[in-house]
């Protein structure tokens, strides 16, 4: 969708902002441009909508050389979101959102209808926020309006220049989450400028790590973190890149252990006798459809003698996640609940139990992920040394 071919930007004083840049952002792909201030990432983005003209090379948008397109018409095909949002203070939220459709000559009713649809999409009820003015909104709400305005004419491309940099960390994380959900629905081709490697890793399908005017590495977040291409990239992503990689490594079914399982209607005496015979300290409790219900300790003789079924003694399961959740979230969940393992369920079902992830298995999954990238093979095919049995871990 966006292709840079040997693009250079050199200013009259001899300063080279971007030097021989070649890369491509595919249709529906979110590419983060990350690097320190003054490295050329914003210059790169502004050349796409011709706010800055390249000195050499060419930029293609959906196969068309942008130098042959009228700049005004080009910019109306591209959504643009900046850090300070740039809303018109004298216009309502609905009017701000409908700006580009109005410039394109849409009928007023159609433009307002589209604006209302987009406000709803970014989580702002148009009946509540539509008639407000920008000064009546929080920073996070203004940023959402900025995203809605950029999407109003349904452009195939979004350019985003540190859009969440002016809000506090809590709001920033919320906006990132909301934008990822939005991107999953609208699938725009996005160039996203940031100086924050955490944000780049979290949002990007691929990351362009900038040095001084050049891209030092262009790859998936997992590869950038697991196999930095140069010492510069390794230094930029940080010594804790292994921890950062947890956020882009999903839980896979091959990462899971299979502990003892009992069902709600099993007699308690039989269930506890089985666990003691197997040397297990606990078991996962499932309902009649194999959906996760909770867990139960092996118990002692007095508990077993009390009779009844597993149902009366099962404990609530606090630590669980769906398959595909990032390892970072798994680690956080273990810490939050002081848990020796977490249950993993099928995210496509109502709660079908798949297995458990232990700290040792989590570490193994991270190692396998790094080795898989280095060998260019599926993660499940990578062998590493075995881990301890789940029967030794307490819930």
UniProtKB/TrEMBL annotation:
UniProt keyword annotations, A-Z: ATP-binding, CBS domain, Nucleotide-binding, Repeat, Transport
Nuclease found in the keyword field: no
A biological process term (GO) from this entry: glycine betaine transport
Residue stretches making up the CBS domain: 314-372
Protein name (database record): ABC-type quaternary amine transporter
Top-level taxon of origin: Bacteria
Enzyme category, top tier: translocase
Matches recorded under PANTHER family: OSMOPROTECTANT IMPORT ATP-BINDING PROTEIN OSMV
Family: Belongs to the ABC transporter superfamily.
């Amino acid at each position: 969708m966006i292709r840079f071919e040997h693009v250079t930007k050199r200013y009259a004083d001899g300063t080279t902002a971007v030097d021989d840049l070649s890369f491509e952002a595919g249709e529906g792909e979110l590419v983060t441009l990350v690097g320190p201030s003054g490295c050329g990432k914003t210059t790169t983005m502004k050349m796409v909508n011709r706010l800055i003209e390249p000195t050499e090379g060419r930029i293609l948008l959906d196969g068309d050389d942008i130098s042959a397109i009228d700049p005004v018409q080009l910019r109306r095909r591209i959504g643009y979101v900046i850090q300070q949002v740039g809303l018109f203070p004298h216009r309502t939220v609905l009017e701000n959102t409908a700006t580009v459709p109005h410039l394109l000559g849409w009928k007023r009713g159609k433009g307002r209808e589209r604006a209302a649809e987009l406000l709803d999409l970014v989580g702002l009820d148009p009946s509540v926020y539509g008639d407000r003015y920008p000064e009546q909104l929080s920073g996070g709400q203004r940023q959402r309006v900025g995203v809605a305005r950029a999407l109003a004419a349904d452009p195939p491309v979004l350019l985003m220049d540190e859009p969440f940099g002016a809000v506090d960390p809590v709001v920033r994380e919320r906006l990132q989450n909301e934008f990822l959900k939005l991107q999953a629905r609208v699938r725009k081709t996005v160039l996203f400028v940031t100086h924050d490697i955490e944000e780049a890793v979290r949002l990007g399908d691929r990351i362009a790590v900038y040095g001084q005017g050049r891209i030092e590495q262009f790859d998936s977040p997992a590869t950038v973190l697991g196999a930095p291409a140069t010492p510069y990239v390794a230094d930029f992503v940080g010594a804790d890149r292994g921890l950062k990689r947890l956020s882009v490594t999903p839980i896979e079914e091959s990462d899971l252990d299979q502990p003892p399982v009992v069902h709600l209607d099993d007699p308690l005496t039989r269930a506890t006798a089985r666990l003691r015979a197997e040397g297990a300290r606990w078991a996962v409790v499932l309902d009649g459809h194999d959906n996760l219900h909770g867990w139960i300790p092996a118990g002692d003789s007095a508990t077993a003698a009390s009779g009844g079924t597993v149902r009366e003694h099962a404990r609530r399961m606090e630590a669980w996640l769906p398959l595909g959740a990032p390892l970072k979230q798994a680690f956080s969940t273990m810490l939050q609940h002081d848990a020796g393992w977490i249950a993993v369920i099928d995210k496509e079902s109502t709660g079908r139990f798949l297995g458990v992830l232990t700290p040792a298995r989590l570490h193994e999954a991270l190692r396998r992920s790094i080795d898989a990238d280095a060998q260019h093979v599926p993660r499940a095919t990578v062998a590493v040394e075995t881990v301890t049995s789940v029967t030794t871990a307490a819930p």
